[in-house]
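Quick one, tokens below. Sequence please?
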């Protein structure tokens, strides 16, 4: 009989999978707030509306709100004056829903685009135009073209800007006269070099910043005075700058105020009122939310002065919004599930509108501890260490490697990490060099070094934790999904101290990925490793499939049958190569799953199988 302290009772794989809920696309409108919520039990993203204490789902059963522009999507909905516009996941077309005076849906979704070869994302509504603004992705005769388009609510579509390889974050000033956006061309990536551009009636397109390919810009915004702001990393950190000001209006602290823009529609800062900024920033990987005033001169304003700190206790903030009474944010914390917050602008009181449940009691919770260790060349890598819940013997360790790889992990409640720490494992969530949130130099450190640099960081982290007596050096595992799976396989090939690992839809053949990948990442492998012709030796030494004989520790593989990024045949070749060298391997193929599992049942089965696999190594 299972006891009350049994991990299977406290936090099963099924509970962890069901807790993988999340929110996105927050908009203050119609006297309330709109957002998109992902439900792993239904494997869909629904559109919800909160007003006067009541939450309603607006989308009918069977409709999922999700954009696939650049494959990673974002900006899949926006508020209109009469309701909301959204991208339907199944056909990638734009639909409108009418919201009645009582906050309920009036009628069924009405399609306003009918371009079967197109996808839409980064939606916004322009009141002065009474029309939508969007990034359009058109699949035309074997090539993919991106444009900025205007879409009237009656369905008329006009091309506004085209010619660049990629577009993001189009915005229009309050008067409807100035259109600003971010664009970039291959082989650049949006976290390496982009341009801020502007178009006005009767004027040619102007590049306002980034023409020299010397900075990555994101999230242009117009304030109430019609001044244009943008996040630029030319100082070494993504910080807000007012393009239209003659002097520096506000001196930011030396921190990133946004992560790498993998998805469209990011909002991590927001001008408000006549001289206010609502800001989220990262301090050593920990997110903070605060306000600032921009009317002070740069000489009077201290870089450490950030105005009022908001929603303390939460450690990641996304999708900022505001109305006259509240600031809004999607937020996360170490002890609770993601939440939609309303923060009173007068007294800072926080109200949770949805989510934010605390699924585990304090005695069953492992809280993240900031981790930093020295690596080669006097550099450091960062992350968060989670000790096992129960004390006692020196614990085994599971190292989590995030995907991207120019992404990041955050010190927030992760149901998968709770699964491991309740079962006696320590977890290190590693932000290896190349992760975002630690400045431009740290982020770009991975250029040409993928497959080596993060492996050095894994080795240094293990050494540091062993020397501190925090882990058992004989029981160290590494896991990762997608790009993190590649890094896990590389670590298993290079680090004999590892005794096992897991690859979830991981890259085992970078050249195969390079041949098949989509336009957004078409040049990413060249940036991460190098040109295959000029740097053939790098690919030879860093391709797990070609180095399979060097992996001696057991490995478990998980793969989606419908994955078009890392196709099943690539993983199966890796499995076969390892089996031929006598390594114990497990392979799990999930029907109906793509690149990244979305069905709660499959998430749970994968988690339980990985745990069972590691236990066999004891």
């Amino acid at each position: 009989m299972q006891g009350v302290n049994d991990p299977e009772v406290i936090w099963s794989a099924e509970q962890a999978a069901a807790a993988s809920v999340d929110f996105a696309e927050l908009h203050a409108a119609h006297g309330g707030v709109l957002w998109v919520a992902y439900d792993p039990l239904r494997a869909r993203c629904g559109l919800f509306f909160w007003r006067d204490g009541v939450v309603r789902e607006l989308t009918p059963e069977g409709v999922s709100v999700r954009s696939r522009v650049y494959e990673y999507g974002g900006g899949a909905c926006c508020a209109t004056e009469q309701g909301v516009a959204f991208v339907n996941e199944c056909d990638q077309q734009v639909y409108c829903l009418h919201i009645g005076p009582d906050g309920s849906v009036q009628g069924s979704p009405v399609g306003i685009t009918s371009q079967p070869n197109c996808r839409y994302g980064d939606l916004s509504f322009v009141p002065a135009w009474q029309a939508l603004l969007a990034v359009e992705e058109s699949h035309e005769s074997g090539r993919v073209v991106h444009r900025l388009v205007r879409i009237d609510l009656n369905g008329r579509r006009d091309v506004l800007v085209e010619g660049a390889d990629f577009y993001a974050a189009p915005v229009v000033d309050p008067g409807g006269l100035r259109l600003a956006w971010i664009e970039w061309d291959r082989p650049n990536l949006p976290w390496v070099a982009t341009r801020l551009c502007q178009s006005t009636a009767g004027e040619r397109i102007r590049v306002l910043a980034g023409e020299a390919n010397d900075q990555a810009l994101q999230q242009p915004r117009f304030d109430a005075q019609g001044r244009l702001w943008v996040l630029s990393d030319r100082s070494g950190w993504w910080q807000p700058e007012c393009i239209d000001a003659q002097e520096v209006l506000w001196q930011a602290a030396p921190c990133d105020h946004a992560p790498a823009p993998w998805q469209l529609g990011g909002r991590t800062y927001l001008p408000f009122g006549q001289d206010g900024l609502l800001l989220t920033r990262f301090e050593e990987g920990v997110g903070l939310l605060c306000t600032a005033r921009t009317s002070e001169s740069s000489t009077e304003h201290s870089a450490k002065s950030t105005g009022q700190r908001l929603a303390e206790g939460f450690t990641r903030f996304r999708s900022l919004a505001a109305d006259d009474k509240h600031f809004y944010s999607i937020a996360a914390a170490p002890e609770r599930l993601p939440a939609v917050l309303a923060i009173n602008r007068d007294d800072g009181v926080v109200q949770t509108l949805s989510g934010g449940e605390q699924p585990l009691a304090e005695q069953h919770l492992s809280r993240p501890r900031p981790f930093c260790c020295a690596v080669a060349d006097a550099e450091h890598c960062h992350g968060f260490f989670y000790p096992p819940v129960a004390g006692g013997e020196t614990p085994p360790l599971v190292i989590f490697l995030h995907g991207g790889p120019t992404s990041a992990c955050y010190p927030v409640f992760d149901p998968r990490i709770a699964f491991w720490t309740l079962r006696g494992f320590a977890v290190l969530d590693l932000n290896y060099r190349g992760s975002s949130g630690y400045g431009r130099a740290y982020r770009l450190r991975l250029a040409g070094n993928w497959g080596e640099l993060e492996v050095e960081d894994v080795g240094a982290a293990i050494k540091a934790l062993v020397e501190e007596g925090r882990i058992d050096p004989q029981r160290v595992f590494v896991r990762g999904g997608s790009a993190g799976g590649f890094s896990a396989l590389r670590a298993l090939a290079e680090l004999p101290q590892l005794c096992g690992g897991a690859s979830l839809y991981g890259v085992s053949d970078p050249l195969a990925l390079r041949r098949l990948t989509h336009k957004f990442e078409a040049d990413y492998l060249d940036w991460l490793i190098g040109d295959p012709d000029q740097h053939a030796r790098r690919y030879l030494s860093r391709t797990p499939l070609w180095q399979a004989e060097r992996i001696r520790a057991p490995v478990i593989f998980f793969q989606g049958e419908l994955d078009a990024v890392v196709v099943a045949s690539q993983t199966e070749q890796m499995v076969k190569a390892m089996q031929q060298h006598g390594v114990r391997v497990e392979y799990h193929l999930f029907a109906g799953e793509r690149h990244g599992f979305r069905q709660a049942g499959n998430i749970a089965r994968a988690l339980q199988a990985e745990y069972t696999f590691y236990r066999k190594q004891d």
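DSSP finds eleven helices and 35 strands in the chain. The two ends are 24 Å apart (CA to CA).
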